[in-house]
TrEMBL record:
Keywords: DNA-binding, Transcription, Transcription regulation. This is FCD domain-containing protein. It comes from Mesorhizobium argentiipisi. Pfam families: FCD, GntR. InterPro entries: GntR_C, TF_FadR/GntR_C, Tscrpt_reg_HTH_GntR, WH-like_DNA-bd_sf, WH_DNA-bd_sf. The keyword Repeat does not apply. PROSITE patterns: HTH_GNTR.
């Protein structure tokens, strides 16, 4: 049954945003009981193929990158509860963003630089407000993923943010610490506009390494 519904979604027979057939229709079509239908709906929802809410008809969501990463949320949440789980995921982010900083220094176009500069300016303006600063911090790093013009990368950034945000929101915040992070962002930006890939990578690594040292005690990590 799950395979059949997946095929209908992939072919477009069940379009994105459309309602899944009613339970009784699915029971008749596949010759199964209500319990089997509900189990199938739960499995499809876990794969990001439908959006299921109590007392509402399930809605079809055509597979996409966001859905693919969203389907991993439960698994990643389990991994993050393990010892050093947050650090392992953070190290993966650092490894990737170091490469993204180098890429930006080499390949960023004028419009990319303008977008990055705008993100940096918003980050500076938000220094007094830690909640806004966090949002603009995320926005600054998001531009590095966008510069690749690879649609996988923004989805990866969105997933990293979703997975790490609950942990990151626990760290102490202050305008003074916000300013330090802003200055690190400015160093990354300066190296990028100077077309200095080594400098951009170094600034990125220094920034994220310092950020980890600041918050590691919050997570009681080794």
């Amino acid at each position: 049954m799950v395979i059949g519904i997946e095929a209908d979604i992939a072919s477009g027979k069940l379009g994105d945003g459309s309602f899944l057939p009613a339970e009784r229709e699915l029971m008749a079509e596949y010759g199964v009981g209500r319990g089997v239908v509900r189990e199938a709906v739960a499995r499809l929802a876990s794969r990001g193929l439908i959006e299921a809410r109590p007392r509402f008809r399930p809605v079809v969501r055509r597979p996409g990158l966001d859905a693919a990463f969203g389907a991993l949320e439960g698994v990643v949440g389990h991994l993050l509860s393990a010892q050093a789980g947050v650090k392992n995921l953070y190290d993966t982010r650092v490894f990737l963003e170091a490469a993204l900083a180098r890429n930006a220094a080499i390949h960023a176009r004028k419009d990319d630089v303008a977008t990055l500069r705008s993100a940096l300016e918003m980050n500076e303006a938000a220094i007094p407000d830690s909640e806004k600063f966090y949002s603009t911090d995320v926005g600054f790093h998001a531009v590095l993923y966008q510069i690749t013009r690879n649609p996988v990368m923004p989805a990866v950034h969105k997933a990293f943010t979703a997975w790490l945000s609950p942990h990151w929101m626990r760290m102490p915040r202050s305008p003074e610490r916000n300013r330090i992070n802003f200055l690190s962002h400015r160093e990354i930006y300066t190296a990028i506009i100077e077309r200095d890939p080594d400098g951009a990578e170094r600034a990125l690594l220094n920034h994220l390494s310092a950020a980890w040292e600041y918050v590691r005690g919050t997570f009681e990590m080794p």
